[in-house]
Amino acid sequence: MLNRFNERYKDRGVVKWQGMFLSEHNSSMDQIQKELKHTVPKKEQMSFEEISEVLNAAVVNNKSISIQLESVDENNNYFNDIIGKLQGHDELGLWVSGTKVNYDEIRNVEFYDEIKWSSLDE
After folding, report:
1. Residue 122 pLDDT more than 60?
2. Prediction pTM value
3. Which residues contact 96 (CB under 8 A, 6 or more apart)?
4. Given this model, what pLDDT does residue 96 score?
5. What does 13-52 look like in DSSP terms, one character per residue?
6. Looking at residue 34, what is its pLDDT?
7. CA-to-CA distance for 81 and 45, rounded, in angstroms?
8. Would you say 118 and 70 are in contact if contact means Cβ atoms under 8 Å apart?
9. pLDDT tens for residues 31-71?
10. Rounded Cα distance, 105 and 93, in Å
11. Cα dist from 2 to 6, 10, 105, whole Å
C-alpha cells in the first residue's frame, strides 16, 4: 500500500516552502536579483582630446556630466556612471560631486541632462 502511495504522490518541490518565507526575505531576494541583472553598457573609449573638450564645455556652460570609468567589477561589468557638476581639478584628476576621478581612469564623458519630474507628461 505504501508503494502505491509513493508511485502516485507528486511532490510540489519548492512551492510547498513558499509559505515559510517572510515578505522581507522575498523583497531582499528580489533586490539581489535586480542587482545581479543590472549591467551598465560599455561606452565608446574617448581620446584625451575629446574628454578635454567635453570637460571644458561643461565648465564654461556650467553643465552636469556623466563619467564612465575604465574599471570593472569581478564579473567584468562597468560600474554606474559618476554624475554631477565639476567642482575642481588638479594635475592628477578632478572632483565631480565630491568624488575624485583621476584623468587616466576616464573611459567616456558626456553631458548629463537630468529629467525633472515636473517636465514629465502623463
Report:
1. no
2. 0.64
3. 65, 67, 82, 83, 84, 85, 86, 87
4. 93
5. GGGGGGGGS-HHHHHHHHHHHHHHH--BPPPPPPPHHHHH
6. 78
7. 14
8. no
9. 888 777 777 888 999 999 999 999 999 999 999 999 999 98
10. 9
11. 6, 14, 68
- Cα torsion 110, 52, 59, 78: sign: positive
Average pLDDT, the chain: 83
Cβ atoms 107, 69 nearer than 8 A: yes
Q: In what order do the strands lie in the sheet with 99-102?
A: 86-89, 93-96, 99-102
Beta-sheet pairing, 86-89 with 93-96: antiparallel
59 membership: H or E segment, kind and range = helix 48-61
pLDDT tens-digit series, residues 91-108: 999 999 889 999 999 999
